[in-house]
Amino acid sequence: MVDENMLITNSHELEQLYGAVAKPSLTKVTDHIHPAYRPFIEASTFVALATSGPDGLDVSPRGDPAGFIHIEDVKTLLLPDRRGNNRIDSLRNILNDNRVALLFLIPGIGETLRISGTAEIRKDPALLDKFAINNQSPKTVLRISVESVFFQCSRAIIRSKLWDPATQIERKALPSTGSILSMISQSEIDGLAYDEALPERLKNTLY
């Protein structure tokens, strides 16, 4: 049974349990893109975008070649919204609550970079063309006003062995996308046909 006396309900209890914040953990926070942090953004090929909306929270993956998030200036980032499934959950959330958070990952690097701020959705033709790949421009670009930037130490990456090739799992060890859709739709979606068509569909719709 759950012991309700073990429930933490306030920040004082948390602070008593975890102790004081180390000085470096406070010193590393900036309100802009410091020159020390710029290389992390430029080298990142993957970022998780967190948003909040009327239906709850959302975290969405974003990935492209290194440098795909442009640094407009020390307080501004530009993030293209590439072709996807058209759910546009993140964009809908931003229309209701423009606060966003970003977690940058760099292959082979233990430290991650965390940025929070606010975002607006832009469709300026010149801006979209700036992010064209294979002659395909994104439909929109997020212009993010930076409020907080700091690096996260490598403990989580080390513990998870995220970049260790020996820990990689073969795709066939988990349910395929088609089988997931088939199970959830109670076979309304033909999972086998979906899986057979997926590689070519991904190739043709990447951008």
From TrEMBL:
InterPro entries: Pyridox_Oxase_FMN-dep, Pyridox_Oxase_N, Split_barrel_FMN-bd. The keyword RNA-binding does not apply. It is an enzyme of class 1 (oxidoreductase). The keyword Kinase does not apply. Residues 34-153 form the Pyridoxamine 5'-phosphate oxidase N-terminal domain. Its EC number is 1.-.-.-, 1.4.3.5. SUPFAM superfamilies: FMN-binding split barrel (SSF50475). GO terms for molecular function: pyridoxamine phosphate oxidase activity. Keywords: Oxidoreductase. This is Phosphohydrolase.
